[in-house]
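Quick one before lunch.
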Amino acid sequence: MKNEVDILKEENEILKIKLRHVQNLASVVELEHKKDLENHLSVLLELEDANSELEKIKKNLEYTVQEKVEEVSEMAQILIKTNLELEGLLKDAKQASVAKSEFLANMSHEIRTPLNGLLGMADLLAETNLDIEQKDFVETMILSGKSLLEIINDILDFSKIEAGQLKIEKVEIDIKVIANGVLRLMQSKADERQNTLKLEFDDNIDNLLIGDPVRIQQILINLIGNAIKFTENGYINLSIERLETNNDTNSLLFKVSDTGIGIAAENVKKIFEQFSQEEGSTTRKFGGTGLGLSITKQLIELMDGKINVVSEKGHGAEFFFVLNFEKSTMIKEVAQVAKEVAQVAKEVAQVAESITVLLVEDNKINQKLAKKILEKQNCIVEIANNGREAVEAFQKNKYNIIFMDCQMPVMDGFEATATIRKLDGGNEQLIVALTANAMDGDKEICLAAGMDKFLAKPIKKQAIIDILTSINK
Amino acid sequence: MARVKRPVTIRDLVVKTNNSNISSLGGIVAKINEIIRNPNAQASDLMTVIETDPPLCAKVLRRANSAVYALRQEVKSIRHAIVILGFNTVRELALNLKVGEVFDNGVVHKKYERRELWKHSLAVAMTAKNILQMELKAQGDDIYPVALLHDIGSIVLDEFEPDKFTEVLDIYEQDNTLMEWDIEKKIFGFDHSAVGQALLKEWKLPFDFVDAVAYHHKPFLSKVPNSKTPYILFIADYLCHNTGPQFFSYNDVHHKFEQALEKLGLEEKAIRLIAEDTWQAVYKLEEEGLLF
Ligand SMILES: [Fe+2]
Ligand SMILES: [Fe+2]
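Model of the fe (ii) ion complex:
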C-alpha cells in the first residue's frame, strides 16, 4: 500500500511538474504567438500598404503617362505654331530691316548730293569779298555743313553695311602709304587738341598687299578721330605690326592707342554698339553720330577681323585688330625673282654699265639718296631738278629709265611725262613715277598720265633692283 | 600521408576552417541571430536571410511541408512558412538545416559518426531551449544557435586532424575515467571548446555566444556576468552526454551539474523530465530521417 501511495505521490509530483511545464510553455508560446501575430499583422499591413501604394503608383503612372503624352503633344503643337509665327516674324523683320536700310542708304545719298552742292557754293562764297561778320557766317555755315556731311556719310555707310550693300574691294595697296596719309589727314585735328600723332610701322610688312584702301583708311580715320576726340594734350599712336613673317599672307596687328580719358570697364563691351558712345551725354559733349565705332567694327568684320579694346577709365584706350592681307601677286613674282636676283645681280652689274638713268627730283636729299642707290647698281645717273629740265634732258639724250617725281615746281611729273610722250621716241621711254603721298588714286593718276611704273618714296634699294632687273629682261 | 611536423595550433585550424565550406556557417548564424536581437527586425528580414541562401531556402520549404507539421495547405514561400509555422519555428528550422549541413557527411570513425555529433548538438539545443521555456519561462532565442554550435570544435578537429581525433576517442574508450576534453588537451594541447571559442570569435559572433561555447564544460568560468546561458548549456550538454544523444559520455562532473542546477534554482527531476521528452522528439526525427 505504502509503495502504491509512494508511486501515486511520485506520479502526482510528475504531473504537477508537467502541468507547470505546459503552463510555462503556454505562456511562452502565447508570447511567441503574439509576436508572430504582430509580425503577421505588420506583414499584412506592409502588403496592404504596398498594394495600395502599387495601386496608387499604377494609377498615377497611367494618369501621368497619358497626361504627359497629351501635354507633350500639346506643347509640340504650340511650339510648331510659335515656330511658324516666329519664322514669319523673322522674315518680316529681315525684310523690314533691309527695306529700312535701303531707304536710309538711298535717303543719305539723296541728301548728300544737294549738301555737297551747298558746301561747294559756300566755299565759293567764302572766296568772295565779304565783311568780317559775313565771313564768320559763311565759315560757320561751312563748318556746320561739313559736320552734317560727316554724319550723313556715317549713316550712309552704316545703312550700306546693314543692307549688305557694302562690298570690300580687293586691289593692290601699300599699308604704309595709307597709314601716312591718314596721319597727315588727321594732323590738323590732332593739333587742335594739342595731341601728338605718331606712327610705328613694322618694316617686315610687304609693301604691296591686296585689300580695300578706302575702308582701311576709313577704319584708321575713325579710330584715330575717336582717339583725338577723347584725348587732349596727349599722344595718339598708330602701330602696325606684322605678326608672322614666314607666310605669303601678311597678318597685320593694328593698334590705335591714346592717352585720353579712357573707357569705364562696364562700358567697354557697349562701346561698339551703334549710337553708343560711352554715355548718352558723351555724344553731346564730344560730338559725332555714335556710329563711327560701330561702323569700324563692322568694316573690320567684313574683312574677317575682330576689333577689341583695352581701356581703363582715366588711363587711355587701345583699340586693336588683326587683318590678314594676301601679298600682291606682283610681290610674289618679285619674291620669286628675288631668289634669282643673286645670280642675275652679276649680269645686272655687267649690263648695268649700259643702263642710263635720268633722275627727275626736286628735293636735293632725295636726289642724293636715289643717285647713290642707282650708282651702286652701276647705273649712269643724270639729274633733272624739275619737269622742264627733264623734258630738255630727254630731247638731248636717250635714257634707259627716267625716274620721275610727281610733285615738282616749274613743271610737275605728270605734265613732264605727258610732254615727253608727245616727243619723238617718247612713247617708248620707260618712265617710273616716284611719289611720296601715295593716296589711293595716285597710282591711277600716274598711269593715266602715261607713266609705266610706280615707286613709293622713300625709295628702297630692293624696289630699284627689281625695276632694273625687269628692264634687263 | 603528409604530416605536419609542427604541432597544429588553434590558429591553424581556424584558418583551415575558414578556407572550407564550414566557414559559411558563421555568416548565416550571425545574420539569423541579429534578427532575433534587433527589436526592429521583422519576419521579412528572416525571410531575406533564408532566401539569399537558395539551397537553405529549398530545404526549409521542404521541411515545412513535411509530415512533422502536418499542414493542410502547401507552404510555398518563406513568408508563408513564417505565417503558418511561426517566426521562431522557421528560424530554428533554418538554423538546424544550415548548421546541420556541416555535420551531414558520411565520415565514420571506428567509434563515432559525424551524424551522432549532430544528433547530440540538436538534442542539446532543443533541451536547452525547452529548459529555458518550460522552467524559466524565457524565450530561448539566444541559446538555440549557441547550443547548436557548442561542439563545433569537435567537427573541426575531426575534419582537419582525423587521426588524432580518433586517437582521442580510442584513449577515451580504454580509460573512461578520463574526461574527453582532457585527452584532447594532451593530444592537441587544447580542447574542442577552445577551438569553438576561437572559431566563433573569428566569425564575429556575439561575445556571449563565444563565452558560452568556450565554457560549456566549465560554466563557472564564464566571463559574462549574470548570464544563465552557459549554465543551461552545460546542464543540457551534461544530460545529453550522460544519458541522451551523445557520441561519448561525461564522467565525474555530476557535482558540477548539481551546482549549476542549484545556481539556477532548478530541480534535477523536472529537468530530466524535459530532457527525456525532448530526446523522444529527437529520436522520432531521426527515425523519420529528418535530422538534416
Ligand atoms: Fe563539448
Ligand atoms: Fe557536447
